[in-house]
Amino acid sequence: MKNCVLVFLALASLVFAQNYSSDSLIVQAILDSNGWNSFTVEEVSNVSGNRIVELKLRGETIYYSIPTYSVWTGWFMYRSITWLPAEIGNLTALEKLDLGGHQLTSLPSTMGNLANLKYLYLDPKHYWDNTKQAHINGAGDIYYGDSLRHKTVSFWSDSLLNTYAANGRINDFSKYRIGSRLPALPATFANLANLIELDISNNPLDSIPSYIGNRTGMIRFWAAGIGLSQFPPQVLNLINLELLNLANNYITSVPSGISALTMLKSLNLSNNEITSLPESMGSLTALSDLLDVSVNELASLPQAIGNFTLLKRLNIDHNMITALPATIGNCASLTRFDAEVNSIASLPSTIGGLVMLDTLFLEWNDLASLPPGIGGLVKIMNLQLMHNNLASLPAELCNLAALAELYIDNNQLTALPDSFGRLSGLTILEATNNKLTDIPASCARLGNMSRVYLSDNLLTSLSSRIGSRTFDLQLNNNLLTSLPPDINANRISVRNNKLTSLPGSIMRSILNSLDVSFNELTALPDSISLAVNLSGIHCAANNITSLPAPFLNLVKVVTMDFHHNNLTVLPDSIGYKMTGLRFVDVRGNSLSTIPASLGKLSNTYLTIFADSNQISWLPDSLIAWRPSTRFYLNFNHLTLAGLPSNLLSITSGFEIQYNRICGATGAINTLLNGKSPNYAATQDCSNTSVADASCVKVLVNSLSQNTPNPFNPSTSINFSLTSPSHVTLQVYDIKGGLVTSLVNTQQQAGSHSVTWDARGLGSGVYYYRLVAGDFKAMKKCIVIK
What we know:
The protein is mostly beta strands. Among the domains are: about 1-90 and about 125-170, no CATH class; about 700-785, Immunoglobulin-like (Sandwich). It is about 5% helix and about 20% strand. It has 6 helices and 36 strands. It has a 25-stranded mixed β-sheet. Strands 4-3-7-8 form a 4-stranded mixed β-sheet, with no helix packed on it. The protein is globular. Residues about 10-15, about 65-70, about 130-170 and about 690-700 have low confidence and may be disordered.
């Protein structure tokens, strides 16, 4: 095909004088030979004076994913230029050529004939700028975004030239990317004397051609990621440069001669190995757009940085800087300052001089305090101070009326300033993992916060309005015994506290997700039915004994998590009313069966965890479930007689390890082995009878509930034996993994007590199992940290 194109172009050049017609033949040949079959010459070019003056041949990618067995598998698809004919050199009127995202290993030397070329882009990675995300189903329909929401639409970005789905343009893309780059530039590029913008980034060139130093009219130059080991001296001659990008190289130092580049507005030296910056950089007073020296080995900044009074963005993150010069306060035009992941121990008092700053990133430093001058950041909107050593915040911080987002996670804060409520514009507060014991009363005025994260503190109470009109409220791992009635949030998470009840007033129509797991609740309020939009409810590891009747009105609930409570029964009609259920977790309760109505759910995907109950029989209706349903019934009391009579018709998956299903033969045994491999080896088939418990002081084989429970860090486990036996007492996690063995020895008849120290283990539910001869028993316990 390429040979035919070459012959055709050669003949055309003999017949036609170079004009739009002959130019377009060359461009059409480029499109055809690179598989851009659905594009036209007009779409990829601009014309002036009957000649093509611009070619837009930048590659594009689509990240697409396809569901396979309910798991999304993703690929990239590419469309790039992989070959150029020598005849491209005949496009002598060309002023702009964009080959970003190419897959070329060489360029035709005839490109040196493009004497009018001003803008040349050769970065093979620039296809990332044109990456679109989509999902494609088996029929070829294209979906945008991250989910299949029944919206078969074309891509939403105007940067794509046409609607792919409608015209078959998707066929121009390939799953395979060669990964080719340019190891060298043609020597004839020395003829390109009119270059204004040149991008040679991400090609393994290792150096910059010497003639680059003669292009004194160049305004923008990109040479990122080309393997430079030193700052290229040729660049110092480009005195009209306004943008210089030498990021992602191996440069160790910056020459003092950089002071000659007085027209620079943007300088990117990020991701190199630079250890210091010269004071002569202070001559670059035109810097206004960007100075990026992030991801280097800088220990300090030059005092001359204070000369950058026009600079809007400064990035010094991921260095080893221990202090900021006082002159930083002179950079009064800064709007964004990135200084995260350094070793900055303090901020200069002059920091308040950054009166235009709206974003300040100081996370992952060594700050122990903030200067009062922080109150001078009158336009700050986003302040990030996570992972420092702050023990307190200055009152002056509360003067920041424009502050909308404050991140103070992972510090040593014991309190917030009394005047914290003056931050009337605050919409996001993240203060997790501190030592806060209370929230100031003034926080009652903060009624417009969309996100409040106060988990992992020592809170015992909350301001009455801290959660009003809040989208996401997280209060996990505190010491709360109650919640304020004014909470009005879309998502509420109060895991691992000491709640004994919930205020009925928090059950509002706005509520979408509620997590009150690992508390001390005994019941849910009847008003829960008012949370009509609730889709996820998590009440695990409480002491709830039953679900209130209004609970069944929550028809939008998808996830229902009540594992390790004291439920003895689920409502018979749960499957008829709560038709949206897809995930039900009732492990570790005292259920004797599963409601027949759950077998009527028609959702495509359904998972039910009912391990560690007292289930002894299952209704026949459960057999109607689909293959995509999973049912977990391990550690129950199921017997062969308690299985559904139509068991052989089952198509759903299930697990039945550690039950009492004994004596299965034939087709039933084959089915059970297929669904729950090696099930028989885990069944308890002993017929040991227990002595009459009504007799006074009659010794029986028994395993008692541990005390205390829940516990931290230790608890006592009691058991008794009717005769001497070899005893094992082992602790398992909720996945069945062995945690520790408490007893593994011969024991005499009588009562015994063992202490289990759970230090070093995380919060959660564990099981302890006793085996003494033919006697086997198991109990659950809860560790709370």
